[in-house]
Structure formats: structure tokens, C-alpha cells
Please model this.
Amino acid sequence: MSNYIDEINKNLAKSLDILMPDKFPKEIYDAMEYSLMAGGKRVRPQFLLLACEAVGGNVSDAIPFACAVEMIHTYSLIHDDLPAIDNDDFRRGKPTNHIKFGEAMAILAGDALLNGAYEIMALNNTLAFKEIAKAAGVSGMIGGQTVDILSENKEISMETLLYIHNNKTGALLSASMSAGAILGGASTQTTEKIKEAGKFIGLAFQIKDDLLDIQGNSKELGKPTNSDEKNKKSTYVSINGIEKSQTDFEEFTKKAVEILDSLNLKNDGLQKLALSLLDRSR
Model:
């Protein structure tokens, strides 16, 4: 998996240069590069590549989509950090994009990364493209973010919270896994089971984020803690408490692993990555 991270980072830099070979306007290139190459766990592209490998596909064929998914994720972080949404000053231990480059350039950098991802995917598999584009759109990530914003300063139901988590965070993660399976040539049935496992992983991932916002170390996280409380957002932890949240987080991860174990996959890379997220501290 560490080899995959190195490969993803190398190809992200290449993809950015392909999109902007002249690096002009330089200001937008610098803003895009600043956030895209700032590090991070590269969880979504890893899941995409591992899914492709697990069903017997050629991982090199999936690299462009892995880069596209990370571009979409990065765009969402840039926009999430803006004053109009979460108003955060730090991301991955560095000033957020709008603090570094200004709000206007941050908005444009996010837009450019999203459209750049579509440019890259449009050259490749149409079905996988559709899977990721839908997850990034209003019926996925944007829909979840919208309900999240509308829910600020309100008590919300568990049903509403699950909608937010399953779409704002889970949709792109599960789509990364199903797109990887598609690119690897998996059957429709296998792809759907992998996507189902991805939904549980996405939900577990968000619950862990909610826990880290309370229990985590801001220096290790690279961003301030207690930001959900600051923004008056309901979270899995605020509704269910720390103990149940921890239990559910572990149970959702184990459920995902059970689904993946039930498939005739070539290896257990997906399961190992899912289980590794249990003990993450950032």
C-alpha cells in the first residue's frame, strides 16, 4: 500500500502538468498544486487501485482514475475550508488554500481540480467515469454537503445524519471501490458487493473523523480539533456518544470486511486497508 501511495503521488504531479503544461496562469497552477500535493492519506485512490487489483485487473489502467478521485477529494477540501462553509485556517498542518492564496483563487483552484478530474476520466472508461461523477454530484457528495450546511444550529435525526455521512463522505469512497472493480473487469454482482462494502467503510471513516475531532491531537491531525462543536454541527458522536460511536465504527468496518471476505477476490488488500483505518490517528 505504501508503494501505491508513492505511485499515486508521482502520477498526481504528472496529471497536473498534463492539465496545465504551460503552468499558466501560474497563480491557479500554484494554488492547485499547493493543496493537491500537500500529502494526505490518499485513502480513496488506494481503495480504487486495490479494488482493481483484487478482481484481477491491471492496476496501471486504473491510475488515471485514482488521480481523478484524489483531485475531486482535494477540491472538496478546498471548498469545505472556505469561510462560507467551515471557515478553517489549517489543513494537513499548513494554512488552508484560501488563507494562502485568497478566497477567489481557492474557489477557482477547487473548480479547476474538479474539471481536471473530469478531463482525465473522459479519456478512459465511461462506466467508471459515471460512477465517480455521480458520487461527486448532487446525489452524492454535494447533496450531503448541502444537507450538512442546512443542518447547522439544529437538532437533526439519525436518519438525516446518516444521509449526510453516506453522501458527503461515503459516496466518493464507495464509488472509488466500485470504479476500481469496473476498471478491473469485475462482474456486476461483484462490483455491487464491493460498493456495498465501501458504503460501510465510508460510514466508519466518517465516524472515526467525528471521534478524532473530539479525541485527536490537532498537531497530528494537521487541523484544529472541536471544529464540529465550533460550527454547531450534529455528529455521530454528539448524537450517540463516544462509546457507541466507537463500537459502531468497529462494527461497520468488520461488516465491510465480512462482505469482502465473501467474494472470490485475488487478495485481501481491501480488507487490510479497511482494518488499518481502525487505529488511525489522523
Observations:
- The domain at 2-274 is CATH 1.10.600.10 (Farnesyl Diphosphate Synthase).
